[in-house]
Amino acid sequence: MNRLLQIVTVLAVGLANLAPAGAAPTTIYTFNGDDAEDGFGWSVSDAGDVNGDGRPDLIVGARYDDNNGYRSGSARVLSGMNGSTLYTFNGDSEGDQFGFSVSGAGDVNGDGRADLIVGTYRDDNNGTWSGSARVFSGMDGSTLYTFNGDSAGDFFGTVSGAGDVNGDGRPDLIVGALYDDNNGYRSGSARVFSGMDGSTLYTFNGDSAGDYFGSVSGAGDVNGDGRADLIVGAWGDDNNGSKSGSARVLSGIDGSTLYTFNGDSADDRFGSSVSGAGDVNGDGRPDLIVGAWRDDNNGTNAGSARVLSGIDGSTLYTLNGDSAGDGFGYPVSGAGDVNGDGRPDLIVGARLDDNNGGNSGSARVVSGIDGSTLYTFNGDSAGDQFGRSVSGAGDVNGDGFADLIVGAPGDDNNGSDSGSARVVTVNGVYDWQGISSDPGEAANWRLMNTTATPDWAPAGRDVVRIGPAANHPLNSGTIDIARIDVLDGGTLQNAPGASIVCPAINLSGLLTGSGTVGTVNLGDGGTLAPGGSSGKTVPVPIGTGTIGADDTTFGPGGLFELQINDFAGTAGDTSLGWDLLSVTGSLTLTATADNPLVIDLVSLTAAQTPGPADNFDNMQSYSLPLVATTGGIFGFDPEAFFLDASSLQNDLGGGTFWIGHSGNDLHLNFAPIPEPSTLAMAAMGLLGLAFYAWRRRRAGGS
Fold this sequence. Notes:
It is built from two helices and 53 strands. By secondary structure, the protein is mostly beta strands. It has an eight-stranded parallel beta sheet, with no helix packed on it. A seven-stranded parallel beta sheet has the order 31-34-37-40-43-48-51, with no helix packed on it. A six-stranded mixed beta sheet has the order 38-41-46-49-53-52, with no helix packed on it. The protein is elongated.
């Protein structure tokens, strides 16, 4: 059977190697522009799974690249799996600035691969700087559609996937033209295109001259009508003062306005960046985020971003830049669930932040659930403008948590302003893979005498993921962690008096020891072993004991290791008795007869060493409670258990074990084979009854 990991309160010797993910998140990739002045990283986006390898890929724009002439521009598609370049798309001609805006498009052509859209806001197809947007196949890189601006100076080309607006089963697209003149000089517009055939579904226009309506994003199904909705910003709108800005949420089903949100005061430029946020407040509807990069809440042009409810338009929270001139709020994006709390999080850029030098830039990741800061990433050096573009990246590294991508078009890694894009994870996952302070040795760090929550486990946020050959026991104290994943080959070990507060301990490895833990989900390949475990390859003390848990699930393919050293002892006793799982709550059984839960019976001596257990008489019956609950047992099926007595060294004398359900408890029962005299008496009784029946039939003449 597979075995797994352990948790502990660690001495300072281990902390250098167990740096908290919240303090030192991992950079998965850094991609660099090809040459000086490329401005690679001006735009970034999750691309979806372009190459069909099961991982999301990425797209990065370099609006000033010179591949097809001075500032023709380019966009590079990069593998999420290994960082390799999948495609490089180039602008058609000099000055196009192809790559000004990039986005994943979804599978617009229905071939099973994610497609892409790239904006070229200075393309001249319909007049000087009319702009265009090109849609590319993820399958082969071919051009699926080219959409053109209506007339000179429209600067058509801010792009986004829109979701399935018209309900035809294909994702659609939205492209903004901030300088369009449909409702007055630079009133702006946004056009929605069918992914199925490229036709125009809607054209939305700014209200009046100078609105600069046209920063665009899909919004998700805000109003719950089954169609994707849209959000468009108008940073020059004057509703609350000159250039206070606004953002309009539009129905996908009919194009009607669902909400109009306004900036607080003049020159806030609210709506300069907009994005769908996902369902951050857990009410079943996607929410929204809008940036106002010149808001003055924390100083002149410190910037802000407002998160708004999709269900009623109320403000959920407002995030503010740290200090004057940061320009926080341009851009904004949904991030996906980066911290594993079940809610999507958010990322906001501040390209003019000075944390690492003038305009080095930063990007702040905030919790969707309450707006608290999860992490702030900083640009490397002055002028990087790190945070000029931000996006959720999807789960690039396959760890079950959303990753992020941030652009820095002013980075100088390959020449002045060559630019870069950094892919990072900030999921609070601690990967214990048997690494110790002495490289090459198996880890055996122990958390000793801790009474406070360790700084590597901030309450309710982080996920501990324990991998092969790791052995980390919590010997005392309390830790509060959002989720623990015990992977195949790792062990989570608890001790009497220690407490793990955790709403989800997912076992594909070993949970052992005593003390209390949180909610336990015993899954395929996982082992639950109260007290200790005799089958673990990484050294774990064996012996009987009690684990206290909250609601627990025994799933298919799991194993419960039941150690017994005295059949006349007490359940959960660490010296004379057998193992016990004590559940405050209910036990739910989802194992089946076809894929049962294995009960591994292990006998120990009074000295807690392998050998026959005391006080076992194979001519007596026994009923040993192995799980005691306060809330009852659900889904009980006696056929859903497989008893393995190969490690029980007592002579069973032909007797039989089975699992029974008595009240709120699960019991291991033993019944002996009846004595020969009893069998003989039973046989004689049956013969007597048969003779009596025969005499009656004779007497009746039948």
